[in-house]
Design goal:
Pathway: Purine metabolism; IMP biosynthesis via de novo pathway; 5-amino-1-(5-phospho-D-ribosyl)imidazole-4-carboxamide from 5-amino-1-(5-phospho-D-ribosyl)imidazole-4-carboxylate: step 1/2. The chain is of the alpha+beta class. The chain is built from 9 helices and 19 strands. It has 2 domains: 119 residues, Phosphorylase Kinase, domain 1 (2-Layer Sandwich); 133 residues, D-amino Acid Aminotransferase, Chain A, domain 1, CATH 3.30.470.20. The relative contact order is 0.16.
Length: 311
């Protein structure tokens, strides 16, 4: 099958769309294919902002997201992340099987555009909550703190500044929304829906993953301000699924630039958000294409964060 029937690229070479001959569901960035006994996750170069998928992609973004997830999954395999859970008799499991294009896919399509941007993963029954961990006070957590002095029912000391490091990381779950924003909720909501034992297990695993990853990142001069994890059940056991600790699911800052009391420069789509905010786009209609310099700056910023972590 000719590659142009399967893949759609923009003028900058960003992969915006895949149409493999397998059942598919699409997220904002990833295309997920059901291969029967497993799933194939394709990280495209799409980028979203303010709940819209933009018409411009970020070249190389999909490969970078896949490489970063693989970096952290490998750290789980070696015990650098989650080793103390294994010591306690509850080893941390994840869904990644491999990152090579399966033969059954390569036999049916030109597999070259998929190289370095796919994950083959185990199927799981998805837990309907985002497991958010915050180590610093920013984003929706900062807004909530300003309004009430707490985040998701977790009371915080008075007088904290924007981007202040918290005394210890906090677990603030969110409901998963099919469209629009996820909703931050107290852990009591999770307990009510999942049961106390499962909610506590998710809380403990999320905090351990964050704390271990934050130590690894700190050695590379990177701060992980906050992140969100997804979990699912496979054969009855909870396991980490989806992407993990990428710029699309986490807020990364350079340690040598960190200064509490102001917004920080992030290794993510900050340039895109700022350009859209300064444009005349009304956020109620399809967003405009990104200027080439914004595309390039964003690609470089994603790459800089990944390079620091993997150095």
């Amino acid at each position: 099958m000719p590659s142009q029937e399967v893949y759609r690229f923009d003028s900058a070479g960003s992969l915006l769309q895949t149409s493999l001959p397998f059942p598919r569901r699409q997220g904002k960035v990833r295309d997920v294919y059901d291969l029967g006994d497993c799933l194939l996750i394709v990280s495209t170069d799409r980028i979203s902002a303010f709940d819209y998928i933009l018409p411009s992609g970020i070249p190389g973004k999909g490969e970078l997201l896949t490489a970063m997830s693989r970096f952290w999954f490998d750290a789980i395999d070696t015990g650098e992340i989650g080793g103390r859970l294994a010591d306690a008799g509850t080893p941390l499991q994840h869904h990644l099987i491999g990152t090579d294009v399966p033969k059954r896919v390569a036999d049916r399509v030109d597999a070259a555009p998929l190289k370095d941007r796919i994950m083959v993963v185990r199927k799981a029954e998805v837990v309907p909550f985002e497991c958010v961990v915050r180590g610093y006070l920013e984003g929706s957590g900062w807004l909530a703190y300003q309004n009430s002095g707490e985040i998701c029912g977790v009371a915080l000391p008075a007088g904290l500044r924007q981007c202040e490091k918290l005394a210890s990381p906090i677990f603030t779950p969110a409901t998963k929304a099919e469209e629009g924003h996820d909703e931050n909720v107290p852990i009591d909501v999770m307990i009510e829906q999942l049961g106390a034992d499962t909610a506590e297990q998710l809380r403990k695993m999320s905090l351990v993953i964050y704390e271990d990853a934050a130590r690894i990142a700190a050695r590379k001069g990177v701060l992980i301000a906050d992140t969100k994890f997804e979990f699912g059940r496979c054969a009855g056991d909870l396991m980490l699924i989806d992407e993990v600790l990428t710029p699309d699911s986490s807020r990364f800052w350079a340690a040598d630039e960190y200064e509490p009391g102001r917004a920080q420069r992030s290794f993510d789509k900050q340039f895109v958000r700022e350009w859209l905010q300064a444009s005349d786009w009304d956020r109620n209609s399809p967003p405009p294409p990104l200027p080439q310099d914004i595309v390039e700056k964003t690609a470089n910023r994603y790459r800089e964060g990944a390079d620091r972590l993997r150095a």
